[in-house]
Write a structure and sequence with these properties.
Blueprint: H1 2-11, E1 19-23, E2 26-28, E3 32-34, E4 40-49, E5 52-62, E6 66-72, H2 79-85, E7 95-102, E8 108-123, E9 136-142, E10 145-150
Antiparallel strand pairs: 1-2, 1-7, 3-6, 4-5, 6-9, 7-8, 8-9, 8-10
């Protein structure tokens, strides 16, 4: 039976709904996380010689990651807002953010670590008197770098 489960685990892609997030050492639940992106700018380099003009693409600097973290709004749940609201002071707090993808048995498969992250945008819920949808809040954070590790 264990061999069948091992075959299934190695044959099927990982699901994206089982994960956890840690911000500055505190585990925080989110319903959606996006922006786990590594990206380099590219620059076009042109050179003229006797044969004409040649063009080459070269890699530039890497872009800093911007994550969007979304979760339901609960009564007296102001921790994300407090972190964002403290950004206007000169001693604001940067935190490491760790996103961990889990397998079907809740074991860590891979992690994304965003170093020295700080919030750049906080968005409250969209309010609509004709709707009965859940209220969501989201926070956008930027970090210095992102490191991916397979566990």
């Amino acid at each position: 039976m264990a061999d069948i489960q091992t075959d299934i685990n190695s044959s099927y892609p990982l699901t994206a709904f089982r994960y956890k997030a840690t911000i500055g050492g505190d585990e925080v639940n989110f319903s959606e996380i996006s922006g786990l992106t590594l990206e380099y700018e590219s620059t076009e380099y042109k050179e003229a010689d006797a044969g004409g003009v040649s063009t080459a693409q070269v890699a530039g600097q890497h872009n800093t990651p911007t994550l969007t973290l979304k979760r339901g709004l609960f009564e007296k749940s102001v921790d994300l807002y407090d972190w964002f609201n403290n950004m206007h002071t000169d001693d604001f707090e940067k935190k490491d953010v760790i996103i961990t993808l889990l397998n079907n048995t809740n074991e860590a498969i891979m992690t994304w670590m965003v170093a020295n992250a700080f919030p750049t945008k906080f968005e409250g819920p969209s309010l609509d008197a004709t709707s009965n949808e859940i209220s969501f809040q989201s926070i956008e954070i930027k970090g210095d770098s992102i490191v991916i590790k397979y566990v």
